[in-house]
Every structure is written in C-alpha cells, then in structure tokens.
Amino acid sequence: MQNHELFTKLDEILNYISVEIGERLTGSENNKKVEAYVENYFKNQGYDVKLQQFDCLNFKIVDAKLTFKDETIPVKPSYYTTGCSVSGEYVKIETVEELKSSDLTDKIAVLHGDLTKEQIMPKSFPFYNPEKHQEIVQILEEKNPAAIVTIVEKDGSIFEDGDFAIPSVYVSKNEGEVLLKNNGEIKLVINAAKEDSHGANVIARLNPKKRRKLVVTAHMDTKTGTPGALDNATGIAILLLLSHLIKPEDIDFCLELLLLNGEDYYSIPGQLAYMETYLQKPEDILLAINCDGVGLKKSSTAVFLTECDSATEDLLNPIILNSTGMDFIAPWFQGDHMLFALKHIPTVAFTSSGIFQILDTIIHTEKDTVNLVDDEKIIRVVRVIEEIIKVFKK
Length: 394
Hints:
With 394 residues, this protein is α/β, with parallel strands linked by helices. Helices cover 31% and strands 28% of the residues. The chain is built from 10 helices and 14 strands. It has helices spanning 3-21, 29-44, 96-101, 131-143, 173-181, 229-245, 269-278, 310-321, 337-341, 375-391; strands at residues 48-68, 71-73, 76-77, 84-93, 108-111, 147-152, 168-172, 185-206, 213-219, 254-260, 285-291, 301-306, 326-328, 347-352. Strands 1, 2, 3, 4, 5, 6, 7, 8, 9, 10, 11, 12, 13 and 14 form a 14-stranded mixed β-sheet that branches. Helix 1 (3-21) runs antiparallel to helix 6, helix 6 (229-245) packs across helix 10 (375-391) and helix 8 (310-321) packs antiparallel against helix 10. The longest helix is centred in the first third of the chain and has 19 residues, at 3-21. The radius of gyration is 23 Å and the shape is elongated.
C-alpha cells in the first residue's frame, strides 16, 4: 500500500475516533463504539478477532458546585467520585499528622499542601501503591468525612478511584485560597452516578494457530473530558494501518494486534484480564511493541528498548535509526509496555519526546485534539513497525 493511501485512511480513523466519538471511558457507550469499529476493521482485513470481555463500571459525572458564604467557588468532580449533596463545617488539613488528629464526623475535609502534592493511587492499582497513599486513604475511610475538597497546584484530580466511596472534588490553589483564609460552613453538590457495565480488549491475530507471537499494542480508552487524539487515537490508528500491510505469508509466527481497554481506568481491568489469560507463558512472545502518545507536532518520535538481548537490539536499532526523526530515550514506566517488560519479554515502546512536557496541560484534557497530530510521524512509525515485523524471525 502506498503512503498516500495510508494518509487518507489515517485521517479517516483519527476523525472518527477522536472527533466523531471523542471521549471514550472504559465501559461507556462511546468506548463500545470504538470496540465495534476496530473489531470490524480488523475482520475486514482478514484477521481472526477475539473480544476479551471484563466487568467494569460506567461512571457518569455531570458537574459539581461548591458554595461558601453565598459565593460559588469553581470546582471539578474527582474522577470516579460518587454524587452527593452535603453541607457542614469544613476542616483544613495539610499533613498526615493533622489528618490523624482531626475530627471529621459530619464535616467536609479540605485537603491541601503535602496531602495534595500528587495523585493518590487507587486502592486496587496493582503495580504502584506507596504506603503513604495507602495510609491517607485508610485514615480518610476511618474518619469518613461527608465529602472531600482537594486544593491542587495542577489541574488534576487527586482521587481517581471507583473503590473510594467518599465524594470529592478538586479546586485550583488560587480559587481555593478563600477556604484556607477563612472558616465556616460550605455546601457541596456533586452530580455523578455509576452503573454496572463491561468493556473488552480487542485481539486481532494473523496466523492465529502459531504458538509463538509478536504483539503490537495500544490502548483505546481515554480519561474523562478529553477527545484523546494523542492519547491514544494515534496508537489505535497505527494498529489499524498495520492490518493493511502484513499478510500471512510475510511472517512465520502469529502477529497479534492488541487494543487494550482500561489504561486510563482506575483499576486497569483490561490489562489485568490480558495478563491473567495471555501472559502466563511469556516465553511464547517474541517481541512486544507499544504505541502511546505517538505523533506530537514539533517533536521527535521517542523510542526505547528493554529486555532485549544483543541479537534483538542489533536487528531493531538500524531499522529505528534509519528512519527520520526518531530518538532513543531513557525508559519510562507509565504505559502498557510494562505489562510485557515486567515479564522479561523483549519490548519496544514508541511515544513522542515532547509528550512528557504536556502531560499536565494537554494530555488527559479537552486540548488533546487532532490538530496536535503530525500525520507524517504516524506513518513513519507504521512503516518502521512494518519492517520490524517482516524481518523478525522466530
């Protein structure tokens, strides 16, 4: 297939996923639309397709309103929060020690300072959960305030946990300053709900009867409120375009194009389902390639290899270095490539070098739109992965 055809298909894919569908939280109707779209796309290219379903929750967050002395302070609902309508005295808490000594019965906890410097990891997140985070959650659950207001330096939710039942919102430091300078009662209303749902990983295979396989993966879900162009419509597009380029006779192994569902969900249910079912024999996986955040304009494509022996590195390095605008960088540990790396499977990860500078301001926000995407960079990555697949021997 010629590059001009790939560009046309790329624009169609990005427009449908990030513009027409947009936000696609795991378990939501939009998420299911993407599942159906990619399933049919792979089938039309002759791939054997399996949907690996799992249970999850569909969270519907509408808005939140905080009132103090008849003035409204702009707040945002925490991701996955429960709804509420509460009022009462608020207690300002800056440290764990203050939290331990506070009486929060029928009160609203206003957390700031040391307690809101970083996101508190979800209780059920399996890979990273510091003891300090566990302690904060445990104390809050024991003291059970009516609600929680977190005052944040950056525009981001401190609590992102569907298993944490205390309603919560976040507010910027500038807007929350009035609460820190005063005392009294506040009223907090959060319009949110959750319902039982399900999601699915979409697993497309070429030569499905071959035991050993090469896996190319990307995630297809988003955070709340973002069209998720770079995170990760571009990754989805790379896998769909690859399905046009690799034929059974090109390879002597199984090629698995894996769209995982749940990378941006608090308990990564799709990733865990895949690990439990398909990573029990890691020796069967020749190589794993992850695509997440690829294609940022005015940014080189960033690549790193891990768990690769010298022969694999000797094979991959020239292919990557011969492509324009690709740079090797130090490993990063946020992403689905870690599912494979932790099993000591040879792994390659593709992203954009500038992605790390915009994580707090663009990615996971309404600003992550297709106008940030450089189509040429996407096609280069597609061609590099195509070459890797076709030269790789089991």
